[in-house]
Design a protein that fits this description.
Number of strands: 7
CATH architecture: 3-Layer(aba) Sandwich
Largest sheet: 3 strands, mixed
Shape: elongated
Helix content: 10-25%
Number of domains: 1
CATH topology: Rossmann fold
CATH class: Alpha Beta
Structural class: alpha+beta
Distance between the termini: 11 Å
Length: 98
C-alpha cells in the first residue's frame, strides 16, 4: 500500500478483532528507524507504525519542519513547513484508517 509518508510497520503478533495502533514520529534530524528500534519492546497486540518526516535534511536525516538560527543565535521555525507537516500527518492518519 502506498501512503503519503514513508513508514515502517510492525504487525501485531497477537491478532485481535481491533488491535491498538501506536504511531511513532521521530525528532528533528532523525528518521523512521530511530524510534522503530524500540518496537520489539512494545506490547505484542499493537500495530506499530513509524513515519518519516517529509523534509530531507541530508544523509538519512529528516525534519517535520526546518529549524533555523540567525546571526545572533536566535532560533526560529519554518511555520509554513510545520503547517504542511501537520496536514500531511492528518492525511496519513486518514489513509491508515481507510
Amino acid at each position: 500500500m502506498n501512503l503519503s509518508l514513508h513508514h515502517l510497520v510492525r504487525e501485531p503478533k497477537i491478532k485481535q478483532e481491533k488491535n491498538p495502533l501506536l504511531l511513532l514520529f521521530h525528532g528533528y534530524g532523525s528518521n523512521e528507524e530511530d524510534l522503530f528500534s524500540f518496537a520489539s519492546e512494545l506490547p505484542e497486540e499493537y500495530y506499530v507504525i513509524s513515519a518519516r518526516a517529509p523534509f530531507d535534511l541530508m544523509y538519512g536525516s529528516y525534519a517535520w519542519y526546518a529549524i533555523n538560527f540567525d546571526a545572533d543565535e536566535n532560533k526560529f521555525s519554518d511555520i509554513g513547513q510545520a503547517r504542511a507537516s501537520r496536514d500531511i500527518i492528518a492525511g496519513f492518519i486518514d489513509e491508515l484508517v481507510a
